[in-house]
Specification:
It is globular and about 35 Å long. Strand 4, helix 4 (about 100-115) and strand 5 (about 120-125) form a beta-alpha-beta unit. The chain is α+β, with helices and mostly antiparallel strands. It contains five helices and seven strands.
Length: about 160
C-alpha cells in the first residue's frame, strides 16, 4: 500500500464495471462476515446496478473511483433522482484502506460534484451498524430525516445550500 490515493471520475468500460461489482460484493461480504454488519437486503440489486453503472449513474450523475497506485480501493456513485436531487450510493472502501479517511474523501468529492450538476441536495441511506453516519456523513452536513422500516437504514439528506430541506 502506497497511500498515494487518487479519486477520479469513472471512465472504464464493461470490464471495469464488472471489477467494481465484484469488489463491491467482496467488501460487503467482508462487512457482514467480519465487521458485524447485518446482511444487505439489496445486494443482488446493487450488483446489477454496478454492472450497468453507465446507465444508472453517468446519465445526469457521476461515479467516482479511488486508486492506490493501480489498485482500485474505493468508489461511490451519485445518481440523479426524478425530483432533481442526487442520491449517494454504493460508497465502499477496501478493508485494508479503512481508517484513512477515504470514505469521507469519496463522499466529499461526490458532494462537490453535486454542486456542479446543479442538484438541489443529496440523499442517502446507511445502516447504523456501519457507523458511517457519524464518521463520514455528519461531518459533511448530512442530517437524518427518517428510517427505512424494511432495512433499518438511516435516511439522511444534505441540501445544496443552507436553509430548506
Amino acid at each position: 500500500m502506497t497511500h498515494d490515493i487518487r479519486i477520479l471520475p469513472f471512465s472504464g468500460g464493461r470490464a471495469a464495471m464488472e471489477e467494481i461489482a465484484e469488489r463491491h460484493l467482496a467488501i460487503r461480504t467482508w462487512q457482514v462476515t467480519y465487521a458485524g454488519r447485518p446482511p444487505f437486503a439489496d445486494i443482488l440489486d446493487s450488483q446489477e446496478d454496478l454492472r450497468l453503472l453507465d446507465v444508472h449513474y453517468l446519465r445526469g450523475g457521476a461515479f467516482l473511483v479511488a486508486y492506490d497506485g493501480q489498485r482500485l480501493v474505493g468508489f461511490v456513485g451519485l445518481r440523479r433522482c426524478a425530483d432533481g436531487w442526487g442520491e449517494l450510493k454504493r460508497l465502499a472502501v477496501e478493508p485494508l484502506w479503512h481508517g484513512l479517511g477515504l470514505g469521507r474523501r469519496l463522499a466529499a468529492a461526490a458532494v462537490g460534484l453535486s454542486f456542479g450538476l446543479r442538484m438541489p441536495g443529496l440523499r442517502l441511506a446507511t445502516h447504523p451498524a456501519e457507523g458511517a453516519a457519524e464518521r463520514v456523513y455528519r461531518p459533511l452536513r448530512f442530517t437524518e430525516y427518517g428510517q427505512n422500516p424494511r432495512t433499518g437504514d438511516l435516511l439522511m439528506r444534505r441540501p445544496a445550500l443552507d436553509g430548506g430541506a
